[in-house]
Every structure is written in structure tokens, then in C-alpha cells.
Amino acid sequence: MRVADRLAAHRTGWHVGEVVAAAMETPLSRRIELEVPTWPGNEAGAHLDIRLTAPDGYQASRAYSLASSGPGTHVTLVVDRMEYGEVSPFLVDELAVGDRIELHGPLGAFFIWRPPMTGTAPAAPMPVQLIGAGSGVVPLFAMVDAHAHAGDATEFRLLYSVRDPEHVFFRAELEAAARDCPGPLRLDLLYTRQGPEGWPAPIGRITRERLAELAIPPADDPTIFLCGPTPFVEMVAMWLVELGHAPERIRAERFGGAA
Ligand SMILES: Cc1cc2nc3c(=O)[nH]c(=O)nc-3n(C[C@H](O)[C@H](O)[C@H](O)COP(=O)(O)OP(=O)(O)OC[C@H]3O[C@@H](n4cnc5c(N)ncnc54)[C@H](O)[C@@H]3O)c2cc1C
After folding, report:
1. Segments of the chain with pLDDT less than 50
2. From the CB of 80, is ligand 1 less than 6 Å away?
3. What is the pLDDT of residue 13?
4. What is the pLDDT of residue 125?
5. What pLDDT is recorded for position 154?
6. Cα separation of 53 and 141, whole Å?
7. Dihedral of the alpha carbons of 138, 155, 246, 190, in degrees to the nearest 10
8. pTM to 2 decimal places
9. How far is the CA of 78 from the centre of ligand 1 (A)?
10. Cis peptide before 127 (omega within 30 of 0)
11. What pLDDT is attached to residue 124?
12. What pLDDT is recorded for position 259?
């Protein structure tokens, strides 16, 4: 069965996943590998809900994007630790290899990129501009990975806003994809607090001017996937429209945080 059909069949499913590996991705985030025997496969951009149940029955659930793409029952997540958060500190500091957790998904049909050659959906129009901040890069990484594995010729650009070099998620994989990917991938890192020694670009939050300079121009009619904290997403989406991108070409996913 095609991944898309399997996802449709299991869209509202509950699953139990076992943690098979976990390691710090950056000083504040952790990559968690799960084996989920009933998982229908990973579409790039999808997410799931994790539900935790305390011994007294109290439950909390939060959404996490899939860093993994493609078929199979292996699921990769990367969780950023929110100070004073309810769920993320547990996932980063306490969840252990061998633990089993409840998962609901895969979810998120709107924020999905499929390689055009698979024929599983209307081909994603070319080119594709990915724009993410912080952990918002997780579903975008899954798209980059799917693009690299599909080897299709869609032009991809990833504009990734991150506080400093040690907080870059997926650094080695992104650099390898930008270097070796059969289809073109341009990686634009935008450091908000501190860049590497001698970094030639300005340090600071994204501005409308930087966005105009780095993003695929509206004349090329890119599909845009935009993901990150709510204030970042809302500001960038507004600028994209002001710059001439059609609103229906912008797919946005808000991770939370004060607006
Ligand atoms: C579709 C979707 C996919 C997501 N994917 C990921 C992912 O791949 N990795 C990941 O780390 N997180 C992801 N998130 C965010 C995640 O669901 C939680 O919101 C986050 O882990 C904080 O949960 P918490 O229980 O620790 O904090 P909470 O107890 O819920 O909140 C603590 C405080 O942090 C603020 N806050 C919550 N989330 C954010 C945020 N993203 N940015 C800034 N402030 C915030 C809240 O406003 C609150 O003040 C995703 C969210 C959505 C909706």
C-alpha cells in the first residue's frame, strides 16, 4: 500500500511506541528514536501527539513533528526543552530508552511535502521554499530528507533562523544534503544571537529585507512551508504576502509561544 493510503487508513490511530535510542541534539534539545510497530509510515511534514499519563491519572499531550520521512515503523522526533514547560522537560531529561509512550497520529495533511515523482498526490509545484525558526526546522528537515532520498529535481531552499551555531538541529545532515543532494538544496542559516567566527552575514532576527534577499522570489511561484514559534510565523507570513507571495502558496505551522 502507498504511504499516503496507509496514512489515510491510520490517520486517527493510537499507537504505543518504545524509545529505542535518545541523544542530545543540541544543549537544549534531544533526538528521540521510537519503534512503533503499528505506525503506517512517515510523510514529510506530518506530526503526532504524545500523551503522557501520570500515576494519578493526570494526562498531558503535546504535538511533535516527525523528523523521519518515508515508510517504516521507526519514528524520529527532536524535542526542544522549554523552561517551565510541562511536557518537554520530561521528554528531554527523563524519558529513557525502553520506556513506552502513547502516540496519536500521523496528523497534519495540510503541511506535507511529497516528492512529485511518487504520484501519491498532486505534484508539489516547484520550487519549494522552507522557512523555519528553532525547533520549527524539524518538519522542514523531514522534507529535505525526503527530497534527498527521492532524488527529484525540485529546487529547495531552507532558510533556518537559529540563535547560534551550537543550537543548529541536524547540522551534519543538512550540510550533507546541501552538498550531496541530487536535487538542488540551498541552506541559508540566519543566526539571531551569535554566528561562527568570521560569519559574513548580519547577526540578528529576520527582517523583511533579509527575507526578500534570501527567499525564492514570488515570480518563481514557490510553495512555502513556514514553521516555528507563533510570533515568528505570523510576522514572516505577513512579510511574504507583502513581498508578493500568494497567500494560498504559504503553508504555515505554529508551534506555540506568545503571539
Ligand atoms: C504541529 C506542532 C508540531 C510541533 N513540533 C515540535 C517539535 O518537533 N519539537 C518541539 O520541540 N516542539 C514542537 N512543538 C511544540 C510542542 O507541542 C510543545 O508546545 C512544546 O514542547 C512545549 O510544551 P511544554 O509542555 O514543555 O510547554 P507548555 O507547558 O505547554 O508551555 C510552557 C510555556 O512555553 C510557551 N511555549 C510553548 N511552546 C512554545 C514554542 N514552540 N515556542 C515558544 N514558546 C512556547 C508557552 O506559551 C508557555 O508559556 C510542536 C507544536 C505543534 C502545534
Report:
1. 122, 124
2. yes
3. 86
4. 52
5. 86
6. 29
7. 50
8. 0.92
9. 12
10. yes
11. 47
12. 55
pLDDT at 153: 82
In a mutational test of the pocket of ligand 1, which residue from 82, 104, 226, 253 has the highest number of ligand atoms less than 8 Å from its CB? 82
Cell of 189: 542559516
Q: Are 128 and 186 in contact (CB under 8 A)?
A: no
Query: What pLDDT shows up at residue 149?
Result: 87
Query: Using a 6 Å cutoff on CB, does residue 113 contact ligand 1?
Result: no
Cell of 84: 517551565
Ligand 1 contact via 258 beta carbon (within 6 Å): yes
Q: Which of 47, 233, 255 maximizes ligand 1 atoms within 8 Å of its Cβ, making it the mutation to test the pocket? A: 255
Domains contained in the chain, CATH given: 3-107 (2.40.30.10), 116-254 (3.40.50.80)
With a 6 A CB cut-off, is 85 part of the ligand 1 pocket?
Answer: yes
Ligand 1 and 26: CB distance under 6 A: no
